[in-house]
Amino acid sequence: MDKVILDMDLIKKIPIADLFKKLNSSSSGLKQSEVQDRLKVYGFNEINEKKVNPIIKFLSYFWGPIPWMIEIASILSAIIHHWEDFWVISALLFINAIVGFWQEHKADNAIELLKKKLALQTKVLRNGEWKEIPANELVPGDIVRVRLGDIIPADLKLTQGEYLSVDESALTGESLPVSKKVGDVCYSGSIVRQGEMNGIVAATAMNTFFGQTAKLVSEARTMSHFQKAVIKIGNYLIFLTIGLVIIIFVVALMRHESVLNVLQFIMVLVIAAIPVALPAVLTVTMAVGAINLSKKKAIVSKLASIEEMAGMDVLCSDKTGTITKNKLTLDKVESFSKLDEQEILKWATLASRAEDHDPIDDVIIKKFNELKTNSDLSEYKVKKFKPFDPVVKRTEAILLGKDNKEFKVSKGAPQVILALAKYKESALEKKVEKTINDLAKRGYRSLGVAKTDTKGKW
To answer: pTM for this structure?
Structure first.
């Protein structure tokens, strides 16, 4: 197929039906064979990084005002046959290059390993089935589903769903989440704060809004305070040395002294004026700092950044949640009606969506399957599903039963479910509250489940 690159303004304006035609896709997603063809055309959905050849990177440590001065000193030492100075200066020059290159090389390897471990996964519709795949395998035309907590894997045009609240602050600077609806565009790299919707991938990799921003950032050339200070010192010494050499040379000519003796004296002056140990001492010192930081689980990709970090006045960080095993289990089911554990789990399962792999939904579905009941969930048809909304604190599924009658099932915060059912019996409210408090004391999180009866009442 031909490569279709769409401008962001066009993606925003174009109707969904026309976008499907342009990308030769449909609401049922792409076939795996089509995906392979598109991967060859568009490439993987990842931001291209300029990889510097290791040899060129190593040689870069010999480039700059201070290294030039040291190299000149080394050459002059060889010319006047001061071989001890030549070997010491050359050794310091190579120590600086080797230590700096090795530390940054180790940091690059660690970062690459972290990237592989933290690779994004996304839900995509392939061959008519929802699958979870690495985000870098997405291609334009794919249908993906994004929900609460997901990072948008590519530039999407939303095609189906109730609503979405997206945090785009990293890209647009907007401090508040932006509400999205069908027909709106979501940028790659933004975070879903509320809701769940489906969308078609309109742009991937460097063609996304985030990719274009990353390209501009990569083209910018910045210099740290440390690098500026070293260059300033180097320039000062170079100009000072040149000034002294000119003065000595002029005075020697006026006194009619031997040019050979003057040149030898000038060489000694130049060697003495060059801080041959400065780069090596600075690099080794920062390398020691990088090693100490690595023991505290911090990776230093550029040694010069250590000095920048040391000059920091305020460091703001954010950590939410608790340190746990990151594994949920369902302890027990408490019934406040005539329904038994099997029935309650059945309705909770119907109010869940397996393909979303929500941690809470997963444990409910797993527990229901472990019961090995005779209940056949295929008897029920999901007419509409509302994902968990942090505002109302519950999910809701509208279902059709065997008799083709419509009813609703909801699960969420127990207080919300109790209010939904409109129970006015103080005894029941107290019983529910006591159960929640008892479970909380044991470190358990409570979840309420309710369904409507034949009259539509909860």
So the answer is: 0.59
